[in-house]
Amino acid sequence: MQVYRVPFSTNVERVALAAGHKGVAIDWVDVADDDRSPLEAVSGQRLVPVLVADGEIVPDSPVILDWLEARFPDPALLPCDSARRAEVRIFCDWFNRVWKRAANAINDDGPTDALAAEMRTAVELFEGLLTGRDYLFGEFGLADVTAFPFLKYAVFGTQPGDTDTFHRVLVDFMPLADDSPLRGWVQRVDAHPRS
Ligand SMILES: N[C@@H](CCC(=O)N[C@@H](CS)C(=O)NCC(=O)O)C(=O)O
Predict the structure, then answer these.
(1) Residue 62 CA, closest ligand 1 atom number
(2) Are residues 40 and 108 in the same domain?
(3) What residue ranges line ligand 1, CB within 6 angstroms?
(4) Which of 40, 75, 129, 191 could serve as a FRET partner for 120 with CA atoms 20 to 30 Å apart?
(5) CA triplet 20, 23, 26: central angle to 5 degrees?
(6) Alpha-carbon 36 to chain mean position
(7) Which atom belonging to ligand 1 lies closest to the Cα atom of 48?
(8) Assigned domain for 77 exists
(9) How far is ligand 1, taken at its centre, from the CA of residue 129, in Å?
(10) Phi and psi for 84 in degrees, rounded to 5?
(11) What is the CATH number for 111?
């Protein structure tokens, strides 16, 4: 199984964490951020991650996570109880379609008071989910894998060499209180294996 990646990619780290949890090895294909032609050649588009396995070409991290869960169900990333599984899926969909939109809009068009407030309110929601439990929905799973690569910036800041302005937005617009439960959660998820 191959997965195409570029350095510092949030969406790629989702796949690394999911595969690490399942003990699935990945043959990483490193693509230069400024020359994505190998990626375009294999997938017809320029975004990472892209998974290539069994003759299938799978772009888009949420789709890749589902692909991994379907083919390597044990250990699971989703709860087996239907209601709890639906809750996790709703969170991931909200994260990808609503939470990410505000952060991307700040990066693309600059901040507004409304977008900054949206990001602060979201931090309160994450903190609420972590009240009295170690992971967003209790056990480590898809919600943590989906959110961690983005929320970690609030705790770790950017790494040396990371010039992605989107990552800077994540640092600047998610100020955390010293006692925020996100701090412990970021450390806990960071300790999980990555493929
Ligand atoms: N919905 C896609 C988004 C992928 C995406 O935006 N990847 C970023 C790296 S984290 C990228 O390749 N950006 C390059 C660009 O926007 O030109 C996913 O979740 O995989």
Answers:
(1) 19
(2) no
(3) 9-11, 46-49, 60-62
(4) 191
(5) 70
(6) 21
(7) 12
(8) no
(9) 26
(10) -70, -35
(11) 1.20.1050
* Domain enclosing residue 186, as ranges: 82-190
What is the Å distance from ligand 1's center to 47 Cα?
A: 4
* Domain identity same for 54 and 93: no
Q: Output the six-digit token pair for 146.
A: 């989906």
What are the tens digits of pLDDT across the range 127-161?
Answer: 999 999 999 999 999 999 999 999 999 999 999 99
Whether 28 is covered by a domain: the verdict is yes
| Shared domain check, 110 and 165 | yes
Tens-digit pLDDT profile for residues 78-107 = 999 999 999 999 999 999 999 999 999 999
- Other Cβ atoms closer than 10 A to 161: 7
The pLDDT tens digits for 31-61 are 999 999 999 999 999 999 999 998 899 999 9
% of the chain exceeding 70 in pLDDT: 100
- pTM score, two decimals? 0.97
Distance between CA 175 and CA 119 in Å, rounded?
10
- For ligand 1, atom 11, name the residue with the nearest CA: 47
